[in-house]
Amino acid sequence: MHWQTSRFRLDLTQPRVMGIVNVTPDSFSDGGRYLDPAAARQHAERLVDEGADLLDIGGESTRPGARTPDTAEELARLRPVLVHAVTLGVPVSVDTSNPDVMREALDVGVDIVNDVRALQRPGAVDVLAAHPQAGVCLMHMRGEPGDMQQDPVYADVVAEVRDFLGERCRVLAAAGVAGERIVLDPGIGFGKTAEHNLTLMARQRELLALGRPLLIGWSRKSTLGRLTGRPAGERVHASVAAALMAVERGARVVRVHDVAATVDAIKVWQAARPFAVAPTMQETDR
Ligand code: HH2
After folding, report:
1. Which residue spans within 96-153 are E strands per DSSP?
2. Cys bridge to 59: 6, 77, 92, 144, which one at CB 3.0-4.6 A?
3. Is 63 a catalytic residue?
């Protein structure tokens, strides 16, 4: 199992950690912290040092009610950070729904387009189809950030997410985008109540029937706040627990803010799998 991207063919036989860099004034958990390009570049380097296998860089917050920046504004935020990130030796994705931003990002060497709107904006599929092998993450969202949390209703959230993602895969296949370039994401928190999100976790394995790797983003999300009673900045433990559960249920990429903690947790998980090679102990095992 692998993910074909512009510069890297990413082996997904082991779970991968995607570190988040939000170059935004208004992201829900770290808005404004990395709006300055120097701070964002430094943060990207730190995440790679902490063991991130990929970086996801976004210039638009998708939190409920956030304002959508125009193309010039989004690119002004992203460009200096992307140009640096592609020198760090890991695949870089751009978190955008804007086809003009996707094109520019791919031109500066970005490997993956991560689109919470699953390439539904006019022209977005064409950008990916025109590129020989850029990777793409297609995410499910019900509605738009402005209204998505206004009482979302599903007959069967897992079936609806699965059908939507399957349909988007067919659209991309028809446009000539090879399946090996595509990863799928149920979109935790995007037009979903806490119950919907937890149902997606409980029945996550059903999404594996789509035949493509799953990427999941639970990091610091409000369902974890509801479960723990903690604000976004204090959800690291809950986020690690959710990421590990997602991995256990077949996710191949987890999108996280707290890279070091997640990397440690996945190391423990990997070492304890029945088929893992036992690590050699250098000192007395305690
Ligand atoms: N979540 C967020 C943004 N982009 N992309 C994918 N594929 N999956 C996700 O779950 C996902 C995503 C929201 O998190 P964050 O980037 O921290 O916040 P904001 O959108 O406010 O910048």
Report:
1. 112-115, 135-139
2. 77
3. no
Rounded-to-integer distance, Cα 128 and Cα 106, Å: 9
Q: Is 24 in the pocket of ligand 1 (CB under 6 A)?
A: yes
What pLDDT, in 10s, does the model give residues 224-264?
A: 999 999 999 999 999 999 999 999 999 999 999 999 999 99
CA atoms of 259 and 52, how far apart (whole Å): 6
Catalytic residue chosen out of the listed positions 255, 267, 273, 286: 255
Ligand 1 pocket test, pick from 30, 54, 63 with the greatest ligand atom count within 8 Å of Cβ, gives 63
Domain boundaries of the chain, sorted by first residue: 2-285
192 catalytically annotated: no
Q: Which long-range contacts (CB under 8 A, 24 or more apart) does 151-157 make?
A: 152/191, 152/192, 152/193, 152/196, 154/196, 157/192, 157/196, 157/199, 157/200
pLDDT tens-place string over residues 5-45 = 999 999 999 999 999 999 999 888 888 899 999 999 999 99
Q: Which of 28-32, 135-139, 166-170, 232-236 has the lowest mean pLDDT?
A: 28-32
- Write the CATH number of the domain with boundaries 2-285: 3.20.20.20
Q: What angle do CA 190, 192, 17 make, to 5 degrees?
A: 50
Beta carbon of 139 within 6 Å of any ligand 1 atom? yes
pTM above 0.85, yes or no: yes
CA–CA dist 282, 106 (Å, integer): 45
What angle, rounded to 10 degrees, do the helices at 259-271 and 236-248 form? 40
